[in-house]
Design goal:
The protein is of the alpha/beta class and 483 residues long. The chain folds into 2 domains: 343 residues, 3-Layer(aba) Sandwich (Alkaline Phosphatase, subunit A), CATH 3.40.720.10; 37 residues, no CATH class. Strands 4-3-5-1-6-7-2-8 form an 8-stranded mixed beta sheet, sandwiched between helices. A 4-stranded antiparallel beta sheet has the order 9-10-11-12, covered by helices on one side. Helix 5 links the parallel strand 3 and strand 4. It is globular.
């Protein structure tokens, strides 16, 4: 049976890896995996926040399908997930890393063991509280390795300790890096000179939603110059190279133990990070720029066509049916993912496919917003997420619901309470010129709106495979009055 490794860094965008075309990136192990596996050039997530994105890629559901669109609504035990399918099929499912996926009642049926390696070092804030840069997420270098390095080492130990006759395994390693704050040990912290990097995407371009302006205000990013933003990008790229080092440890362990030929390795992230582009840092629940939705996706599976590149768009949750197909496990729930099996064997993808993503909350959903008293963030002005929480509470329209449709050539985003967006990705790949309602784009705009509506109709719910008896068969006897 095929073994599996999900190596799942948090908040890693695609365009800053060497195998994805960045001229300066030092990512030898990602490049090595791409050379022996299949690289998907246009993989997009279904949400740009950790929990809803993970709920999507483990179920094959869009966020709206079951209401998984916040940090606070994880997968519960009555919902399907890839790990549960594998455990119930005899797999040893090992979890090493962060959660942001399962509710407490889900672990027993989905996981064999959860590993908590020892903690790691943290980076100090470089700036005083009254400095405009205090809340920009940039930190000094870590004094030693962080939690993620120990997580990778725990994965290596697991691989090296396996014995003949052990059951097939799923090793799920959801690490925290390169999620901000932006910090990493040396030599990765200083690996990239900010002055050598390509120009950042235009700061606060015209036609962007109002959250762009207000994030810059609440975090005082509007008081920081391009040099500071380039430092952030440089450290973020160093974090990616640090994660590359961790992947190398796992790939080496697979080869040393002779398990590489029967192990499918999936490398992917849950969303990206602005990292200085547009004058912004981190992410935003209704932000749907490519640097947030487009993630690296590289799969090496037994029998795949080595070095194959799929340029056609896919969605991150396609990993669910792909994994279960490789495992020989039947999917027993309605979902919207497509198997990547043909592409792993060398086929092209679907050039006409559109990918979709969602985000934000409605004004009728106060329980969804960050900054609630129960968060603990709203009471601490020094907390790194305090500006984000306050913006969501003060200016809820800046985090309104949003939906994206993206084809190979165009992207449309609808926001009922803010600016709609349309980008010509051929003429404007950095999404700096919003052409929504421009007459020359009227036809494509209408086509994408209609296609989005069709998509909502087709994915509005999922009917369970299990059926219920009609009438009163099975009703509790103590509730029954018979005359």
């Amino acid at each position: 049976m095929t073994n599996f490794i999900y190596f799942n860094p948090d908040e890693m965008r695609a365009d800053l890896l060497g195998c994805y075309g960045h001229p300066l990136a030092r990512t030898p192990n990602f490049d090595r995996l791409a050379a022996s596996g299949v690289r998907f050039d246009q993989c997009h997530v279904q949400h740009t926040v950790c929990t809803p994105s993970r709920c999507s890629f483990m179920t094959g559901w869009y966020p709206h399908t079951h209401g998984h669109r916040t940090l606070w609504h994880s997968l519960r035990n009555d919902e399907p997930n890839t790990l549960k399918y594998l455990k119930q099929s005899g797999y040893d499912v090992r979890w090493i890393g962060k959660n942001d996926l399962l509710a407490p009642d889900s672990f027993e049926d989905s996981v064999t063991k959860i590993h908590f390696p020892k903690g790691g070092a943290g980076g100090a804030n470089l700036y005083e509280r009254d400095d405009a840069r205090f809340m920009n997420f940039l930190r000094g270098p870590l004094d030693g390795d962080n939690n993620d390095y120990h997580r990778a080492q725990e994965g290596v130990r697991y691989l090296k300790n396996r014995k003949p006759g052990d059951p097939p395994f799923m090793l799920y390693i959801p690490i925290g890096c390169p999620h901000c704050p932006y910090t990493v040990p040396e030599p990765w912290y200083s690996m990239y000179d900010p002055n050598d990097l390509p120009p950042l995407r235009q700061t606060e371009p015209d036609g962007k939603p109002q959250y762009v302006h207000w994030i810059r205000k609440y975090r005082r990013l509007d008081e920081q110059d391009d040099a500071e933003l380039r430092k952030i990008m440089a450290v973020y790229m160093g974090m990616i190279s640090y994660v590359d080092h961790m992947l190398g440890l796992l790939l080496d362990a697979l080869e040393e133990t002779g398990q590489d030929d029967n192990t499918a390795v999936f490398f992917f992230s849950d969303h990206g990070d602005w990292a200085g582009d547009y004058g912004l840092v981190e992410k935003w629940p209704s932000g749907l720029d490519d640097c947030l939705t487009r993630i690296p996706m590289i799969v090496r599976a037994p029998g795949n066509q080595a070095g194959h590149v799929v340029n056609e768009p896919i969605e991150c949750f396609d990993i669910m049916p792909t994994t279960l197909e490789l495992a020989g496990v039947d999917v027993q729930h309605t979902h919207h993912g497509r198997s990547m099996g043909p592409q792993l064997r060398g086929s092209a993808g679907d050039p006409g496919r559109a990918v979709f993503a969602e985000g934000g909350y409605g004004p009728h959903e106060p329980h969804c917003f960050e900054g609630k008293p129960s968060d603990g963030v709203a009471s601490d002005p020094d907390a790194i997420y305090y500006p984000k929480a306050m913006q969501q509470q003060d200016r809820r329209e800046t985090v309104c619901r949003s939906t994206m449709i993206r084809t190979a050539t165009h992207k449309l985003v609808r926001r009922p309470d803010d600016v709609d967006e349309l980008y010509d990705l051929v003429a404007d790949p950095q999404e700096c010129r919003n052409v929504y309602n421009c007459p020359e784009y009227a036809q494509i705009q209408q086509e994408l709106i209609e296609r989005m509506l069709d998509w909502y109709i087709q994915t509005s719910d999922v009917t369970p495979f299990e059926t219920d008896p009609r009438g009163f068969n099975g009703a509790p006897e103590h509730l029954t009055v018979r005359e």
